[in-house]
Design goal:
The protein has helices spanning about 75-85, 100-110, 130-140, 150-160, 165-170, 180-190, 190-195, 195-200, 210-215, 235-245, 260-265, 265-279, and strands at about 5, 10-15, 20-25, 50, 90-95, 115-120, 225-230, 250-255. The protein has about 280 residues and is of the alpha/beta class. The longest helix has 13 residues, at about 150-160. The chain is globular, with a radius of gyration of 18 Å.
Length: about 280
């Protein structure tokens, strides 16, 4: 497994899939190993996907200082990987909580970003996030699904603050546009791929300075794709639109029928959208 050494000595693993121009991919979770991204619905046919396992996840090493799991502390890891390959600039794709890391990287190293693709991504780094209300909005959109009643009750238990492990499992279909065999297998791998203690540190106090990030990102010259899922609760399309407004050269796309993992819900639509943007 190829690795690069971070500034603090932590060994960071990365996975390379496909050929062509590199696309640096940052996973979400937060702190979920990059394996869940797969080949992003076949995007590897268009681009070489370079997928970073964030420190303490997947094949990457565990840092000596757990405080380095904090999102802003991992910006140096992204720069270490870019420098390792010798790229003057690179296309970056980030999913979900990886959006925060990508935004902070773009704010600190804007000249290193060729394009930025934010896929159903969070933007707490810019002071934008989804709420319980946004999450609840998607419930009504799925009322016709055969799994709806059990998932709805579990979802309510989660937001009431008294969930069980079974509730989290039952509510998972809300994150997918299609709750088919592929989605079920994808969801089943979540626990073993996620570093839960690191996830708690990822957004801990001091990770974000929204005012500073907004000022820095306003100078970003790179084109940005903000892709939202029609059925995703985090972020809802209108929240994704708010994110796009903070990025000077951003375009918003809402993928019909997609949840939080749009490359699984409609691979052809997803890959065509991203490949066209990158071209």
């Amino acid at each position: 497994m190829p690795t690069v050494t971070a500034a603090d000595g932590t060994e960071l693993a990365y996975h390379v899939i496909g050929e062509g121009k590199p696309l640096l991919c940052l996973p979400g979770g937060p702190m979920r190993a990059s394996a869940y991204l797969g080949d992003l619905g076949g995007l590897s046919k268009w681009r070489q996907l370079v997928m970073l396992d964030l420190r303490g996840t997947g094949d990457s090493g565990i840092p000596g200082d757990p405080a380095t799991y904090r999102c802003d502390r991992q910006v140096d890891d992204v720069e270490a990987l870019r420098n390792h390959f010798g790229w003057d600039s690179v296309d970056v794709l980030a999913h979900s909580a990886g959006g925060d890391l990508a935004i902070l990287y773009a704010a600190r190293c804007p000249q290193r970003i060729r394009t930025l693709s934010l896929i159903t991504a969070r933007a707490r780094a810019l002071g934008v996030d989804f709420t319980e209300e946004h999450r609840r909005e998607i419930v009504a959109l799925r009322a016709a699904e055969p799994w709806f009643e059990a998932a709805r009750d579990a979802y309510e238990a989660i937001w009431s603050g008294s969930p069980t492990g079974a509730d989290f499992d039952a509510a998972v279909p809300f994150f997918y546009g299609r709750w088919d065999a592929a989605a079920q297998a994808h969801a089943a791998a979540d626990i073993e791929q996620t570093n839960e203690p690191a996830a708690d540190i990822y957004t801990s106090s001091g990770a974000f300075d929204p005012a500073g990030a907004r000022t820095a990102i306003a100078r970003l010259e790179a084109r940005v794709l903000v892709l939202a899922g029609e059925l995703d609760g985090g972020p809802r399309p209108r929240v994704a639109a708010d994110i796009a407004k903070l990025l000077p050269h951003a375009e918003l796309t809402v993928q019909p029928g997609a949840g939080h993992y749009p490359w699984l819900d409609d691979p052809a639509c997803f890959t065509q959208t991203v490949a066209t943007f990158l071209a």
